[in-house]
Amino acid sequence: MNQEIILLCLAAFGAGFIDAIVGGGGLLQTPATFLILPQYPVATLLGTVKIPSLAGTTIAAVKYAKQVKFNYKVLIACTLSAFIASFSGAFLVSKINNTQIKPIILVVLVAVALYTYFNKQFGVQQHKQQTITKQVALAAVFGLIIGFYDGLIGPGTGSFLILVFIAALGFDFLGASAHAKIVNMGTNLAALLYFAYSGHILLQFAIPMAVFNIAGSFLGAKLALLKGNKFVRIFFLIVVFGTILRFAYDVFLKA
């Protein structure tokens, strides 16, 4: 038990650090939890990791809120739609074969990585090209899509949110990351409510993991704010590449 908690807490710290900067901490925390606690059902492990994820994301969001100006109309529209969709995705996760969706996501991720790498100005500066009405509408639509994805599959949600805030809504990397944290709080909370209602949470593991996820998130958010957009852009590319490897393994190698 003690060894399991130590390993889980280390994974949670790393996940919190990554999540606070560009999202994608679930790529570390979720597989690690599955590996360390193979004796528990998948739904129980998914429910358990939602507590540290929510805790760490909340701390990062508070840290960003002190230095980044939020667009509250866009934020509310995206968060509300993502919350509803994430709850629906969590409900349907046991009824839909998500392996058919993963090849499509893999292609999208490769395209995102290539575009971000070759477009050096992508997300370095803020570019507002739409009216606030159009931004709110786009935020609500993408909130539904990504929220549902988070509840159904999960890994890379933070990175997809950042991409939407930059490419569709015209934010820079730092602003996109800050807004993504709030939306991700909503998706995590929605999924957590469903898993808690259905009794799929192991508090003896979730609570210490949450403490370490918070510590990692605090450090990650502080570093992102200190280093700025170019650092976040590089970190974004690294995490997207890691996400690509994960999905490529699932699509081509995993039985």
From TrEMBL:
Its main location: membrane. It comes from Pedobacter montanisoli. Belongs to the 4-toluene sulfonate uptake permease (TSUP) (TC 2.A.102) family. It holds the Pfam family TauE. The chain crosses the membrane at residues 44-62, 74-94, 100-118, 138-171, 191-219, 231-249. This is Probable membrane transporter protein. It is a multi-pass membrane protein. Keywords: Cell membrane, Membrane, Transmembrane, Transmembrane helix, Transport. It is found in: Cell membrane. Signal peptide: none annotated.
